[in-house]
Amino acid sequence: MKLARMIGAVLMLLLGACDPPGISKGDSYEATVRQADEARLAGNPDNAIPLYERALQANPEGIEAKLGLGQTLLSIGAGDEAAAQFRDVLARRGGDNVARRGLAAALIAMGQPALAEQQIDSALRADPGDYRALNLLGVSLDLQGRHAEAQANYRRGIELAPDYASLRSNFGLSLAITGPPQEAIAQLSPIAGSTRADARIRQNLAFAFAMAGDLQNALLLCRRDLDERGAQRQLAYFMQLRALPPELRSAEFRRNPGLVAARGGA
Question: Can you give the pTM of this predicted structure?
Answer without folding.
Answer: 0.84
